[in-house]
C-alpha cells in the first residue's frame, strides 16, 4: 500500500485557511495555491536519490551531493491542477510537464477525458500528478490509469485537500501510488463536494461561474 502523507507545517496550515475562505478572491487564491504547491514540493521530493560530485569551494576540493536518478514529470489534471504547476516548477525547474484533461460529469460524477499530452519518455520519469481536490477520487484514478496505460510506473499524487473517500479509492485502485495532501477533510456532501473543503477549485482559480 502506498503511503498517505498529510502536511504538518504551520505555513501550509496558515495558507490553506485563506485558500478555504470564500472571501478570498481569485488573485490571492492563485497565489496561495502556488505557494502551497511550492512548499509541498519540498516534502514530495524528500526521497529523491543523491550522488556525490567533486567540486571546488573557494577553500578546497570536496565531494558534495546532487540529485541523481530518475527524471521528473509534473502532470496537472486540467483544469484545476494548473494552479499548482508554477509552484512545483519553481522548486523543480528541470521537470517536464504533461497535461491530462478531465472533467467530472456533473450528472454521473464520472471523469471524462478530453486531452492528454505527455512527455515522450513518460515511462522513464518519476511523475508527480497534481490536482487540488481529491473528492470521489474518480478523476485522479482515471488520470493515473491513463499514465499507466502509457507506460508510467513511478507515480505520486499531490493534492491540497482530500476526502477520506477519495483516498480509499486511490489506495484500492493504485496501491503503488503515494498520496501527499495538505489536509484530509471530513467527508463529501450530496454533490460530492469536499466538506469543509474550498468549493470548486477550478472556478475559484480562474474566476469562472
Ligand atoms: C475537480 C477537481 C478534480 C475533481 C475532483 O475538477 O479539480 O479534478 O473535480 O473530483 P473527483 O475526485 O470526485 O473526481 P472538475 O471536474 O470540476 O474540473 P475542472 O478542474 O476543469 O474545474
Ligand atoms: N471538485 C472541486 O473543485 N471541489 C470539490 O470539493 C470536489 C470536487
From TrEMBL:
Native species: Thermohalobacter berrensis
An annotated Gene Ontology molecular function: magnesium ion binding
Cofactor note: Binds 1 Mg(2+) ion per subunit. The magnesium is bound as Mg-PRPP.
Catalytic activity of the protein: UMP + diphosphate = 5-phospho-alpha-D-ribose 1-diphosphate + uracil
Enzyme class per UniProt: transferase
InterPro entries, per database record: PRTase-like, PRTase_dom, Upp_B, UPRT, UPRTase/APRTase
Protein name listed in UniProt: Uracil phosphoribosyltransferase
GO cellular component, one term: cytoplasm
Amino acid at each position: 500500500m502506498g503511503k498517505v502523507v498529510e502536511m504538518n507545517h504551520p505555513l501550509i496550515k496558515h495558507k490553506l485557511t485563506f485558500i478555504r475562505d470564500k472571501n478570498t478572491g481569485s488573485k490571492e487564491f492563485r497565489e496561495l495555491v502556488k505557494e502551497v504547491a511550492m512548499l509541498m514540493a519540498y516534502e514530495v521530493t524528500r526521497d529523491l536519490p543523491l550522488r556525490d560530485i567533486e567540486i571546488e569551494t573557494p577553500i578546497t576540493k570536496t565531494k558534495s551531493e546532487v540529485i541523481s536518478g530518475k527524471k521528473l514529470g509534473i502532470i496537472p489534471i486540467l483544469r484545476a491542477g494548473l494552479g499548482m504547476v508554477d509552484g512545483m516548477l519553481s522548486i523543480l525547474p528541470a521537470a517536464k510537464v504533461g497535461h491530462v484533461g478531465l472533467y467530472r460529469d456533473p450528472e454521473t460524477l464520472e471523469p471524462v477525458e478530453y486531452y492528454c499530452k505527455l512527455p515522450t519518455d513518460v515511462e522513464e520519469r518519476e511523475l508527480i500528478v497534481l490536482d487540488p481536490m481529491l473528492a470521489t477520487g474518480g478523476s485522479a484514478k482515471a488520470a493515473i490509469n491513463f499514465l499507466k496505460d502509457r507506460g508510467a510506473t513511478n507515480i505520486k499524487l499531490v493534492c491540497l485537500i482530500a476526502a477520506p473517500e477519495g483516498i480509499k479509492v486511490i489506495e484500492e485502485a493504485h496501491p503503488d501510488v503515494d498520496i501527499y495532501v495538505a489536509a484530509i477533510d471530513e467527508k463529501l456532501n450530496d454533490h460530492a463536494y469536499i466538506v469543509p473543503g474550498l468549493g470548486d477549485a477550478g472556478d475559484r482559480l480562474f474566476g469562472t461561474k
